[in-house]
Amino acid sequence: MSEVKQVKLTPNEIRTAKNAAAAEKTLALANKLMLTANQAAAEAQQILQAKQLIAAQKEDAAAKAQAAYATAVEQKAQTEQEKSAATAAGEQARADAEAARVAKLLAAQQAAAAKQLAMEQARQRAQEAAAAKLAQAEARKKAAEEAAALKKAQAEAKKQAAEEAAALKKAEAEAKKLAAQQAAAEAAAMKLAEAEARKLAAQQAAAAKKAEAEVRKKAAEEAAALKKAEAEARAKAAAEAAALKKAEAEARRLAAQQAAAAKKAEAEAMKQAAKEAAEIKQAEAEARKIAAQQAAAEKKAEAEARKQAALEAAAIKKAEDEAKKVAAQEAAAARKLAAEQARLAAQELAAAKKAEADARKAAAAQAKQIAQEEAAARKAAAELKKAEAAARKAALAPPEPVWPFPDEESKEAA
Fold first, then answer.
1. Is the pTM above the cut of 0.70?
2. 40-80 pLDDT, tens per residue?
3. Same domain? 199 vs 310
4. Per 3-state DSSP, what percentage of the chain is helix, strand, and coil (rounded to 5)?
């Protein structure tokens, strides 16, 4: 029996064969995609160069427009500076006029203040004179009160001396009466005491006389002191009256000097005010003249600015028209380029779709081939397994007898 030798593929070989087929397919697809990508990159480079050219043209137009705008802005700034200078000059003139007005007002206020000060000083001097008179009257009243007090004290001293003398006399009479009563009552029993009583009465009378003399001496001293105090008070009142008169005369002299100084200061203030008023009028005339000149300069500058602004507006409008024209040209070029790009993109899309269809077709064919190869491999594996089973079966079966058979030989030998 002839044997058919079949090669059995291992799973690793089958997987390797599949991977190799997939790799070949992937490589072919990658080559196609690389070609497509290279073509798209070349087209994108062309588009980028066209865009860069358009961008350069736009930048050139923008630079020109920017330069025109910068020139217009510079001219406008110069016009604004001239206008600001004219406005500042006008403000300075108005400020000078206001300063002159304020100076005039201040001079009038100073003159009024000087007059008010002179009146206040005169009123103060009058108050000082009235105060001096009042002080003199108070001094006179005080001197009169002190004199009256001295007189009253002298009268009180005299009254007290008379009362003391009357009291001494009354005491002496009482003593005499008491002595007589004692003498009458005790005449019989106290003869010795009578002598003592007489002696005592004599002593008391001497003491009363002595006390009366002391009282009279004290009253005389007090009267002399009162006279001296009254004389001193009169001298003091006279001195104060003389001092008041001197102070009043000094106050009148000072008031006259202050009034003269006030009149002189008022005259000086009026003179200064008149001088300042003349200067203010002159300054106002100069300010009006300068203001008129500045107004004329401002009008001239404004006319020049309007003229320059009109020229700048015309230049800007021209630049804008040029920019619009360039922008329209650029827009047309961009539209043309976009149409070309769209056409190229459509072609690329069609080519990509065709390549994708081819790739899908190739992939389907490759998948079919791989399926057929896998079916053949599976069939071969089944045949191999079948052959292996037959071989194992054949190996396990007993060997067939070969002629002459052993039984027949033994029979023949017998």
1. no
2. 778 778 878 877 887 787 788 778 777 877 887 887 788 78
3. no
4. 95, 0, 5
